[in-house]
Inverse folding.
């Protein structure tokens, strides 16, 4: 097995980094955040023109037909600069459409996602904030030839700008059995989207309420009223995608810490000469590189649909969640007093670390998943 990146993948990384350095500098990111918008439509259109929104969409729907590894490369670069675009929720939703959708459903939505015309997101979490699909209570009741949705979803990322909501709902049974995923246009009658307060101002969250929302039978992805296996497989790929974004952010925190340690002078010498600072940076480097290895292994396993893919995804999310939070916290500590100020970027990465840590389960949740998969 070749654990290195191909020339094409390295070119994709360089292209992404150069583009984002020019079009998503921190000055632009802060302007978007302080405006309260949370998203930059112009940047989103540029990403679509580059083909990033259709990176893993099949060619027959206008995409590039690449894999999870290439997607992870772009997500890592987006995470480095905290790009204010709904890219991650949209590609997670596109992957779910690819996993569960019928040909007609994929044709209806994927070409529009690939072109950047449609922003999509996954509505999974409910009261109690459990990332486990088995805790779903939102009911999809039979109504004539279709369904009626009643309930609510919480902490839905970028729902306020989404055109399409992929909603996990219960059609019957309990636990992970009897779950279906519905493609719900955000403008559907009975759908109400209310902003929620969020620590990370660059990833707005929302509560989505469904009040007797009428849906045709064609809204149920693949016509599957028991889609838990496909849903779980897609969520494991989503974990690898989230981890890739976290790796990019953690690497930027490390680079910022090293740069500050070289330029900050105390008692006539840079603080980087002190053993305490050197040890912090060395530990951060170890965590970043370990996080990268776990993430890209999880992405590779997901692409190959390897038997160990669920385990790899859970291990990556468990480790990378803790690593990014720790590295972002150490970045603040190395910057000292100014690390806590609004003018420095340290707090932005720390907030993103906490946001990504909670998304689809934190380290404790996934360590418990790993323990459950082990043959003990």
């Amino acid at each position: 097995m070749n654990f290195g990146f191909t020339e094409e993948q390295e070119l994709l990384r360089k292209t992404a980094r150069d583009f984002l350095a020019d079009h998503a500098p921190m000055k632009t990111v802060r302007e978007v955040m302080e405006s309260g918008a949370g998203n930059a439509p112009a940047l989103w259109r540029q990403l679509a023109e580059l083909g990033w929104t259709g990176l893993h969409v099949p060619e027959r729907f206008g995409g590039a037909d690449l894999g999870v590894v290439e997607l992870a490369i772009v997500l890592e670069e987006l995470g480095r600069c905290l790009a204010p675009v709904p890219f991650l929720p949209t590609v997670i939703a596109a992957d779910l459409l690819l996993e569960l959708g019928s040909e007609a459903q994929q044709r209806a939505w994927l070409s529009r996602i690939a072109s950047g015309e449609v922003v999509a997101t996954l509505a999974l979490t409910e009261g109690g904030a459990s990332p486990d699909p088995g805790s779903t209570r939102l009911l999809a009741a039979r109504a004539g030839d279709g369904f009626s949705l009643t309930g609510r979803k919480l902490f839905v990322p970028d729902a306020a700008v989404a055109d399409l909501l992929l909603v996990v709902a219960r059609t019957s049974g309990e636990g992970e059995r009897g779950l279906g995923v519905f493609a719900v246009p955000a403008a559907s009658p009975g759908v109400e989207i209310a902003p929620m307060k969020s620590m990370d101002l660059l990833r707005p969250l929302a509560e989505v309420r469904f009040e007797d929302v009428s849906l045709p039978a064609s809204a149920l992805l693949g016509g599957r009223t028991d889609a838990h296996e496909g849903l779980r497989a897609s969520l494991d790929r989503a974990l690898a995608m989230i981890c890739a974004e976290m790796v990019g952010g953690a690497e930027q925190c490390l680079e910022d810490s090293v740069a500050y340690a070289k330029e900050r002078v105390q008692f006539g010498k840079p603080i980087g000469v002190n053993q305490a600072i050197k040890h912090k940076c060395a530990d951060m480097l170890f965590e970043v590189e370990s996080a990268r290895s776990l993430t890209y292994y999880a992405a590779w396993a997901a692409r190959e649909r390897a038997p160990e893919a669920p385990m790899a995804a859970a291990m990556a999310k468990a480790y990378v969640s803790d690593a990014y939070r720790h590295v972002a916290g150490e970045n603040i500590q190395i910057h000292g007093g100014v690390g806590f100020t609004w003018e420095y970027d340290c707090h932005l990465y720390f907030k993103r670390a906490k946001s990504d840590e909670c998304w689809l389960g934190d380290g404790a949740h996934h360590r418990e998943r790993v323990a459950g998969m082990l043959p003990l």
Summary: The chain has three domains: 7-119, 121-225, 229-373.
